[in-house]
Specification:
The protein has 241 residues and is of the alpha/beta class. 44% of the residues lie in helices and 16% in strands. It has a domain at 62-199. Helix 2 (31-53) packs antiparallel against helix 7.
Length: 241
Amino acid sequence: MNPEIEAFFKEEEEAEAVKEPAPRPTTMRHPLLLVFVILGAAFLFWRSLPPALEFFDADAPGDCGDLTLRPEQRAAQPDLPPLPHKQYCRLQSTVDTLSILATGEEQRSIDPYKRHEGRRYFVKLAGDKVFAVFAGERRDVVNYRDRKSSLVGFQVDEVGRVLDPDVMRGYEGTARTLRLKYSIPDGVPIRLFDTTDDPKKRWPYLLVCGLMLMMIGLASFGLARLGLAAARRRRQAAAQA
């Protein structure tokens, strides 16, 4: 090969070898941005952690007992507290009123289950001021209501989540309507027993928590590298002085 051509290619190879490395992302070079990343990720982690932990409730639901025994328990213990807010548990009781508070629109369908798809029924349970929440398309609920023309006497023995509608965002109107409908004064605790709650649907919150932890770890690693680099530069400057 021509020596001049060889020399040209050799110079190109040497130039490629001494190219500067690609610059690091801007965020990784600015400690203030890294601090903001850590704070933002920590806030999202904190907000997502409670519903993420509810994912595991399905594996070990608590026991809220037989609601129909609450009057006897209250007679023996006048300061008996209401059912704990957000507890996922098994509860037994019976629907004891004719009236139903239904939300959602009835669908146009000859199928009785699809007709009530997406609706929610709020019904009063015997024993305390607790209202069960049923999915409108549940087969046992639809069949019982069609047969009896109401849900009075419908037996409840299942798991669900206890909710305090007075403190839950978005339930203010429901709490007000239930109090008016059943003549329950303000200040008297009421509870919802939501049988439609599925803890396993909380998996996106687990994913968010995992991603936020990863971001906190990466940003913390970036801060540590910047700190070590700054300390090294100070030592070098001190050695040269």
